[in-house]
Amino acid sequence: MTTPQPPADPAEMTTFIETQYHAAHRAQLPELAELSAKVERVHAGAPGVPAGLAEVLGHMIGALEVHMKKEELILFPAIRKGGMPGIENPIAVMRADHDDHEEEVSRIRALTDDLTLPEGACRSWTELYRGLEHFLNELDAHIRLENDVLFPQFEPASA
To answer: For 3-35, how does the pLDDT look when each residue is reduced to its tens digit (9 = 90+)?
Structure first.
């Protein structure tokens, strides 16, 4: 399944981000955290088990929800109005959040040996890593779209 092309208009892009990425993250992460907890419980002590992954995903659910709410309630409405004085400040906060999300992605990759399944992995474990791969790809595309395309349109040019 390929993600549709985002619109070029910044206001339309914010709606695209909310419907394409925010909604997907809200649906995916709780399922992945639950599946991870199951895999960790059933395979406790087994070689390659991603011990601690459910906890990381649980934290990420909260952190992403706060981040997405800040975008939906503060930044995106301002962008839809064509910007506002000082908009670079909430954008800087969003960029810092993105850096934090990327650190969590690194932790996920470390805990899962970069999503490498052990030999003979069960269906749940396989489903977990397949779902994680999709989520991580979508999160990366989401962050790139905001950092590289949307935000620069509202930040002052560097001197």
So the answer is: 688 999 999 999 999 999 999 999 999 999 999
Characterize 102-122 residue by residue with b for buried, 16 or more Cβ atoms within 10 angstroms of its Cβ, and e for exposed.
Answer: eebbebbeebbeeeeeeeebe
Please state the domain extents for the chain: 10-154
Structure tokens at 110: 């470390």
Q: Tokens for 117?
A: 């399944």
46 in helix, strand or coil? coil
Encoded tokens for 89: 């400040």
Residue of 138, 140, 111, 105 lying closest to 39 (CA atoms): 111
* pTM of the predicted model as reported, rounded to 2 decimal places: 0.93
3-state secondary structure 101-129: HHHHHHHHHHHCCCCCCCCCCCHHHHHHH
Per-residue pLDDT tens digits for 21-71: 999 999 999 999 999 999 999 999 898 999 999 999 999 999 999 999 999
